[in-house]
Write a structure and sequence with these properties.
Layout: H1 9-39, H2 45-49, H3 57-71, H4 81-95, H5 98-118, H6 126-129, H7 133-191, H8 193-220
Length: 225
């Protein structure tokens, strides 16, 4: 039985070179995707995941799985991979949350409406029915503006809510302190009860002794006629 032929040294060198090229290409793709994710507008989860609005939930999950495997920090030496991975995960969670996704879809629709109003277009306008690259770019830009405004309002409302909660908490704290002072006063008053009663008894006894002395003095000073 003859031994299997060993690959020639030249063939091994070529295979090693191909493996190196594939590895380099893979790392390039990973770095490029990490760069794209970090440059995407982070308030737009669709942009972070490189998806279009209206896509079904199943596609969102598939896209997240695909990209997360590509840029996972354990699979690349890129130091920015953890930040990109966290942003990708956050975007996926937002799109799978019905309330947050509805808010994002509403902002995107508002941006389209504002753009149409600025350009005096209708839903039947060719630019709207079959948008070209220029219209889509303007729509994305307008979406960013709408999302920034919405986030500013959200933060303002959150700040006002925190201030209101702070006022309510201070009110609760003040009422709690007042009740505490009343309880302490009542305890001290109760603790001093025996002392007050004893003082009153001593006063009463002293008064009785004083009256008795006065009467005896009056009797001694009485003159018989």
């Amino acid at each position: 039985m003859t031994a299997p032929e060993q690959p020639a040294k030249e063939e091994l060198d070529e295979l090693d070179a191909l493996d190196a090229l594939e590895k380099e290409a893979s790392e390039f793709n990973k770095d490029a995707e990490i760069d794209r994710i970090l440059k995407a507008f982070k308030l737009d989860a669709y942009a972070v995941l490189n998806l279009q609005p209206g896509i079904p939930d199943t596609q969102i999950k598939l896209q997240y799985r695909k990209l997360s495997l590509l840029i996972h920090p354990d699979k690349t030496s890129n130091p920015l991979a953890p930040s990109a991975f966290d942003r990708l995960k956050k975007a996926s969670s937002e799109l799978q949350d019905a309330k947050q996704r509805a808010h994002l879809d509403e902002c995107i629709a508002d941006a389209r409406m504002l753009l149409m109003r600025e350009r005096k277009l209708t839903v039947d306008s060719p630019e709207v029915k079959e948008p070209d690259a220029a219209f889509l770019a303007a729509w994305r830009k307008k979406t960013i503006e709408v999302l920034v405004d919405a986030e500013a309002r959200r933060r303002k409302q959150a700040k006002a809510q925190l201030q209101e909660e702070g006022r309510e908490q201070r009110k609760v704290d003040e009422e709690t302190e007042q009740r505490k002072r009343r309880r302490e006063h009542e305890v001290k008053w109760e603790e001093s009860r025996e002392s007050r009663i004893g003082s009153w008894r001593d006063f009463q006894k002293g008064g009785e002794r004083g009256e008795g002395k006065g009467q005896s003095k009056k009797k001694k000073l009485k003159v018989l006629g």
